Amino acid sequence: MVIQAILVGLVYWLSMGRACYYISFAIRKPLVLGVIIGLIYNDIPSGLMYGATIQLMYMGGIEAGGNIPSDQGLASCIAIPAAIVTNLDPAAAVALAVPFGVLGVLINNVRRTINSFYNAKADQFVEEEKYDALNIFSFLLPWLTNGALYFTPVFIATLFGADVVQAFINVVPEWLMNGLNNAGNMLPALGFALTLVVMGKQKYLPFFVLGFFLYSILGFSMLTGAVIALCLALITSLFKQTDEEVA
Q1: What is the DSSP code (8-state) at residue 29?
Q2: Model-level pTM?
Q3: Distance CA 34, CA 39 (A)
Q4: In which band, very low, low, confident or very high, does the pLDDT at 180 lie, cut at 50, 70 and 90?
Q5: Most distant CA pair in the chain: distance in Å?
Q6: In the predicted model, what is the mean pLDDT of residues 2-18?
Q7: Residue in 29, 28, 18 with CA at minimum distance from that of residue 145
Q8: Helices (H), ranges, the chain
Q9: Fewer CB within a 10 Å sphere, N or C end of the chain?
């Protein structure tokens, strides 16, 4: 049980630690985490079933501007192990996941607050040209801090089981949960505002208009749109590099 708790904690850290974005964003979805946790508990079908059920809550969610409305990684890494061990009904697993998704937003905000101190120190080292120390404050310390924030709650919750998880939920005051929920609902609005600030820049407006009309006319999927956007970005970058070389 201890080894399983350690592995699940490490999986959550890897999915939210942001050391490698292409890995983090690939595995932080409940459906993917369900398969990984199911493998850890030697019950992939159950893990996949619970992960798919929890995934339904987040099908329409986006992290606009990098602000998460709910931490689906924490919700999955706590609810799925508890559901597998106690053989919970999928609906009960979803009910268990919801409050931890909200609490994950609080953990993410704590991480950002701590990282702001590292950023200030990193700026100082850039000015002083101390690049060895910069590596420590720009990557190593934030990553280890992420480990402490992300690994610990999942390890404890998984080690001591669903009863402790439910007891923790019962102890948290209703007003606090409501406050966290409202804060989580506000973050997407902030993310959209930040995204609109970027799109509102004059040099990016043609891409926005082109993407909007292409989607409206052709009705392609999100994956198709991402491929088109990637190609446009590469073409633009290529021409920019060519112009700089000629100049």
Answers
A1: S
A2: 0.62
A3: 8
A4: low
A5: 67
A6: 84
A7: 18
A8: 2-16, 21-27, 30-40, 44-55, 72-86, 90-128, 131-135, 141-171, 174-199, 205-218, 222-246
A9: C
